[in-house]
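User: Modeling request: complex.
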Amino acid sequence: TEQELDEMFSTAIEVAKEAGKVIRDGFYKEKTVDTKISAADLVTETDQAIEKMVHAMITKKFPDHRFIGEESTAESGEKHQLTDDPTWIIDPIDGTTNFVNHVQEVSFSLGVMVNKKTVIGVVYAPIKEEMFSARLGKGAYLNSEKLKASDITDLKEAVIIFEGGNSRDAKLLEEKVKNIHALIAHSRGIRAYGSAAVNLCHVAAGRGQGYVEYGLHIWDFIAGALIATEAGAVVLDPTGSDLDPLRQRVLCACSPEVAKALSQILTHIDTGYD
Ligand code: LIP
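Assistant: Request completed. Predicted assembly structure:
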């Protein structure tokens, strides 16, 4: 019901603020860093502490809701199951490499799905004090300001965000380099801010016209994807079909025209299915 959704939304904001405090406290301190799938895939004790705290806060309020978190998934090594039940999907720190390097583009990302549809998206970048939020059908906001994506339709005038990702697989890198070439050739320039969630919010806020990444997971992009679409951007599978949250890839563009042009110039990489 609408009332339940209101309650879930206020919990999401509250949880994001608490997570933001922990990120801010840890930002300038010495960190214990560990690696996961590659030397470029980092986790710190702050990621793990936030995930535990957030899990506890959510289950206390909504004991029968499901939870998918980046670090608990990494620890258990199990595939996460996306069901129709209300599910809270969180990335405690999206942009852990930035966090470790004192780069301000770090965020806490929280999406809530019901019947496999995202109904709430919250991305909080606590160092910059930017709280991005969206509810399905109700628009997207940066703090209290309503967001609207850019209205550019020509890829030649578009700035596209692109990430190298954390896989070091040689074949995959070759295809990514092809994509970097194609993007530079056809756009006004490329950028990489180091956090999928922040990248999507940048497009939502008109700070760029597109974002493409291959090799992501649901917690990296599910919240930002709702924020972007609620700001009028399009979020798709890079091939142009509907976004599949378990397909490990995302294309976001400020307009359908830019989305189509991007989809046509890219080599579509299949990194697997969660
Ligand atoms: C990161 C993403 C980033 C991507 C990295 C990584 P993490 O998330 O947001 O855009 O390029 O491969 O997945 O690991 O910092 O939560």
